[in-house]
């Protein structure tokens, strides 16, 4: 188990399998930027075999939890094959996927059969018009809601619902979302709008601090803080005292959690990043395709992690970064 400069182990690997997405959420892939964006060339994208090899080597260094992300991971052809290849690795204790659910109803069964444990679905509004506005794409919210039901039926559980909250956009959806999912076993997690990348016109005024949401929710239901399940758990959780389940908050702006951050990220292009707000990744693709040995690649990953001292969210607004931050759609959330 390797640790970084703050004694944080490398326990989670988040793998972006594509930089493409079918939605245009303004806080991630604003349409005005991404509609004529140059996406990664096919030849520069890691094959499933290469991703499996990197994952296997990462498990040698302590990784036990793997999450498939994007862009939108279900856009990658036959991604269930990759699920099979990774779920085959004994050390991987938890294999999850974050998806916008547009293709989930179609794929859920074979993802489950392939060995996927659970899904996290992005859903920023229940109101159909507002949902379409948040994703800036003409897709009915019913598509996502139906896909959540299908994923639940085939056993891709526990399902987490990720809702990015933007002031002036969807804070009116907080209570309706909880009314919809309380008691279903699915957990809604409200995410503070983050200054990821350089293209989402982030503005502190549009951030709704989680404490404000806790207050709003506590006026409607009785809730109490719940213990975290493990070191590095991203969301702070509250329990409904009436047995209605839990609600989570991911508060990167108002309550940073860098101290326990155990996440390594892999881009579809084969670069590893030690922080969501990082700028320079470490290239694994070149050594991979130049016959480097397992040891050489593992050493590169270990060196990258052991010299890690990222804590962007704790320093936010402090010392400006040397180079522009990587885009979230490129390394996954
Ligand atoms: S800001 Fe970087 S170091 Fe901090 S929790 Fe997020 S990914 Fe981890």
Description:
The protein is α/β, with parallel strands linked by helices and 333 residues long. It has one domain: Alpha-Beta Barrel (TIM Barrel), CATH 3.20.20. It has twelve helices and twelve strands. The chain has helices at 31-34, 48-60, 79-87, 104-114, 128-135, 141-154, 174-181, 210-218, 285-288, 294-306, 312-315, 328-331, and strands at 12-16, 65-69, 94-99, 118-122, 160-165, 187-192, 223-226, 236-240, 246-250, 263-266, 271-273, 282-283. A twelve-stranded mixed sheet has the order 7-8-9-6-5-4-3-2-1-10-11-12. Iron/sulfur cluster (SF4) is lined by residues 252, 257-258, 261, 263, 275-277, 310-313.
Q: Cα-atom Rg, whole angstroms?
A: 19 Å
Number of strands: 12
> Strand order within the widest sheet?
7-8-9-6-5-4-3-2-1-10-11-12
Task: Kindly report the name of the CATH homologous superfamily.
Answer: Aldolase class I
Give the helix/strand class. Answer: alpha/beta
Instruction: Specify the biggest β-sheet.
Output: 12 strands, mixed
